[in-house]
């Protein structure tokens, strides 16, 4: 089964009735480390692809850098909304780039990245929060890139940064 489906399935198997609880994904640090490793692997494989084309239609990527001090002052709901916006932009960028990459090497990695990012997007949309469901329509800080490898770099930085710290913050409440 595709890795994205595996991620979503592992999450859904650990959902409590009435209120989504991503307990295993959040409480088992090995899972997020696995996804960070996979993001690094995808990035390395994409870097090894010969002559990846420059994107004729630039990919709009979220700027995923953040200040840990500022991050700590935000509510979990604000963090979730921010990550959802970043993921939505990243999924769109990966989908757009897929249509421009014909060689198997880059296309395979882009497809995998799309599946993973989309799974995280779906997963975070299913979390139950007081603020209600996620409404698309945010406008995160972004940059236009014509290099396909930038998509992989952005994804790895998002998983390694905001997503990992978000799960760590959730673990404080969920994993007692």
Automatic annotation (TrEMBL):
Q: Name one GO biological process term.
A: cell population proliferation
Q: Which Pfam families match?
A: EPO_TPO
Tell me where the signal peptide lies: 1-20
Query: Which PANTHER family is this protein grouped with?
Result: THROMBOPOIETIN (PTHR10560:SF0)
Q: Which GO terms describe its cellular component?
A: extracellular region
Molecular function in Gene Ontology: cytokine activity; hormone activity
Q: Specify the protein name.
A: Thrombopoietin
Where does it reside? Answer: Secreted
Q: Which domain of life is it from?
A: Eukaryota
Q: Recite the UniProt keywords alphabetically.
A: Disulfide bond, Glycoprotein, Hormone, Secreted, Signal
Q: Which family does it belong to?
A: Belongs to the EPO/TPO family.
């Amino acid at each position: 089964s595709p890795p994205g489906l595996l991620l979503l399935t592992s999450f859904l198997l650990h959902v409590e009735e009435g209120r989504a609880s991503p307990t295993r994904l959040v409480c088992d640090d090995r899972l997020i480390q696995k996804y960070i490793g996979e993001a690094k692997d995808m990035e390395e494989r994409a870097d090894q692809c010969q002559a990846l084309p420059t994107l004729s239609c630039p990919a709009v990527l979220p700027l995923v850098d953040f200040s840990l001090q500022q991050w700590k002052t935000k509510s979990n709901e604000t963090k979730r909304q921010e990550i959802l916006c970043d993921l939505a932009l990243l999924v769109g960028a990966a989908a757009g780039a897929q249509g421009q990459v014909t060689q198997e090497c880059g296309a395979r990695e882009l497809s995998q990245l799309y599946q993973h990012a989309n799974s995280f997007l779906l997963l975070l949309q299913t979390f139950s929060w007081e603020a209600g469901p996620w409404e698309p329509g945010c406008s995160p800080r972004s940059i236009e890139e014509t290099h396909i490898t930038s998509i992989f770099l952005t994804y790895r930085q998002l998983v390694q940064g905001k997503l990992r710290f978000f799960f760590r913050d959730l673990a404080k409440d969920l994993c007692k």
